[in-house]
């Protein structure tokens, strides 16, 4: 009668195969994580270099574009409305809305890096839950800390981050300032006209 028990040597061999399989998987995961950490660090260093090169110019160009666009729009609406004023307005608004090619390129890189970080967070969570290797766990923790403290942002000298939502907020700010200035100017004009009318009636 055949015994249903597995010989000790077979059991030991099977356990050894399973151990080697999981060790191989752990080594593969660790290698992938290290490559990922290296490439992610390089991308962040490139982004830091871009911030250092273009941050000041973006801060100046954005501030100039915001102020000049508001002033030119108000002057155009108030005075002659000539074609030259309108062209200056369009040029300023173009700079404000789209910045420059280098700026778009820079914050697109930042956006792509941030998206990859968000996608990778789920993978890191699964690795942390499934892989019990201490080396893998340590590498996952290092990457997680890196994601938290260096999430990849393109900014203007650290004053504010530059992305599509920021551009939209700048455009809405310009429109808001123009409306406020026009309403304030209309109110002042109305008060002055009433004052002149009262003075005329008195005399």
UniProtKB/TrEMBL annotation:
GO terms for cellular component: axon; dendrite; neuronal cell body; plasma membrane. It is a multi-pass membrane protein. Coiled coil: none annotated. The keyword Transmembrane helix applies. InterPro entries: 7TM_chemorcpt. Its main location: membrane. Keywords: Cell membrane, Membrane, Receptor, Transducer, Transmembrane, Transmembrane helix. The chain crosses the membrane at residues 59-77, 164-184. Signal peptide: none annotated. It is found in: Cell membrane. One of its GO terms (biological process) is sensory perception of taste. This is Gustatory receptor. It comes from Menopon gallinae.
């Amino acid at each position: 009668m055949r015994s249903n028990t597995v010989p000790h040597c077979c059991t030991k061999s099977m356990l050894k195969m399973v151990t080697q399989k999981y060790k191989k998987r752990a080594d593969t995961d660790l290698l992938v994580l290290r490559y990922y950490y290296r490439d992610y660090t390089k991308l962040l260093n490139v982004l830091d270099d871009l911030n250092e090169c273009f941050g000041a110019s973006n801060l100046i160009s954005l501030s100039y574009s915001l102020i000049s666009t508001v002033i030119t729009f108000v002057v155009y609406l108030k005075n002659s409305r000539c074609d030259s004023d309108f062209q200056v307005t369009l040029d300023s608004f173009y700079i404000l809305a789209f910045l420059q090619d280098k700026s778009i390129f820079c914050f697109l890189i930042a956006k792509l890096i941030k998206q990859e970080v968000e996608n990778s967070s789920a993978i890191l969570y699964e690795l942390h839950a499934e892989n019990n290797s201490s080396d893998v766990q340590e590498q996952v923790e290092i990457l997680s800390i890196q994601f938290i403290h260096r999430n990849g942002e393109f900014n203007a000298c650290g004053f504010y981050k530059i992305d599509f939502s920021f551009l939209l907020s700048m455009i809405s700010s310009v429109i808001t300032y123009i409306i406020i200035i026009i309403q304030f100017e209309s109110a002042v004009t109305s008060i002055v006209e009433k004052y002149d009318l009262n003075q005329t009636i008195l005399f």
